[in-house]
UniProtKB/TrEMBL annotation:
Any GO MF annotation of the entry: pyridoxal phosphate binding
Protein name as it appears in the record: Adenosylmethionine-8-amino-7-oxononanoate aminotransferase
Organism (species): Lihuaxuella thermophila
Extent of the signal sequence: none
Family to which the UniProt record says this protein belongs: Belongs to the class-III pyridoxal-phosphate-dependent aminotransferase family.
CDD domains: OAT_like
Cofactor(s) of this protein: pyridoxal 5'-phosphate
Domain of life where this protein originates: Bacteria
UniProt keywords, alphabetically: Aminotransferase, Pyridoxal phosphate, Transferase
NCBIfam families, alphabetized: PRK06917.1
PROSITE patterns: AA_TRANSFER_CLASS_3 (PS00600)
PANTHER family: AMINOTRANSFERASE, AMINOTRANSFERASE CLASS-III
Amino acid sequence: MNRTYLIKPVLDYDYPTAVYGEGIYLYDHTGKQYIDGSSGAVTASIGHRVKEVVEAMIAQANQVSFTYRSQFTNEPAEKLAKKLSEWAPGDLNWSFFVNSGSEATETAMKIAIQYWQERGYGRKNKVLSRWMSYHGITLGALSMSGHVLRRKRFIPLLEDFPSASPPYCYRCPFNSTYPGCNLMCAKELETAIKRIGAENIAAFIAEPIIGASGGAVTPPDGYYQEIKAICERNEILFIADEVMTGIGRTGKRFAVEHWGVVPDLIALGKGMSAGYTPIAATLVSDRVMEPILRGSKAIMAGHTYSANPQSAAVSLAVLEYIEKHRLVEAAAEQGQYLMEKLQQLANMFEMVGDVRGKGLLLGMEFVADRLLKTPFHPETDVTNRIVARAFEKGLLVYPAAGGIDGAGDAVLIAPPLVIQKAEIDRLVSILEDTIREVESELRSEGWTGQLFAG
Ligand code: PMP
């Protein structure tokens, strides 16, 4: 390995260098082609090297690349905020721009707390969340995240713990089944609110579809309607973390639309700029802005790069591209096709326990015993084996292991929204070869159903 000073995710691993991208493909320094089957980290939603975005980037750089938000507003940021208010459901008309999903969820938390302060309820400052969730890597966002593996090292520093179970129907935390369960997982939120006291709680945050910590775990019909009703009844705000699910990924502009609910705040990131520049946002409803506009007239958050004109111009070009090419509709249609193909794989391979998700945010969970849904022992490292074997074969999928308690194996399959059916066929065929190889490797190590179960 050449001498390196870059701190990479795994320090002793020799990563290939990405040098070129085109549509759904990435190419490394040896010229090897990869299908970007996870859009990076579910980000590169319109594919790589899109001419219109590159042109918007250059045009803005020729105007002005940086202005500071305490001194100026700028045209791209104004236009982007207007466009997002047209895209967003209900009265989510306001945008606060930041640089990453972690900052977007933290800003949502801060705005929720500020909202109650402005109304004279200073004690309402806790944010509830669910286990099996991911809201970001900074300490505030990680405090809200129920991602056992990512929390582990920082436990004493994290302020609070998630307080509700995930809507994980495949392996129900209450050992029940929908619809007989009567949405116990949603109702548990109300029990938690009673225990902690609504007078101490500012908001509840949830990913509409669980991404990084479970692999497209999708709640049943009625779940978010119930959550919203509980939040309203107890006077706490509902924050939807749409960093992964937003901007068309699930076949709707925002995933909460699948349940027909309008949150009080939405955190956005990833697909907002499709990875071309770092930009994220917290969308705020008129209702939440109202006491702030009357009160301190400023949001107590923000960064040097907040509302950066260069990033805003790029995000605007991405949203226009999605509109022009009807990519939200494409995500729904191609997602349906990909889902059918993945279900065929589930019928072929014993280790595939579940296939789930919406639009082009799909997940596949692997199990040691399909009947009992027993996870593989964590040391079997099934998720990483699938990811690494697919990588070798030129397919990128995203590891989403971790389940409720740190065990469980899953990957996300979330290609760019521009993917075509023939490309889906190729993606699925590589995935099929990958699973076949890993399955036979596990069998050669003695896997016979329950033997490797944790
Ligand atoms: N929320 C969700 C739902 C995410 O999936 C992620 C990133 N995986 C984040 C927040 C954090 O975003 P970022 O990595 O841009 O800080």
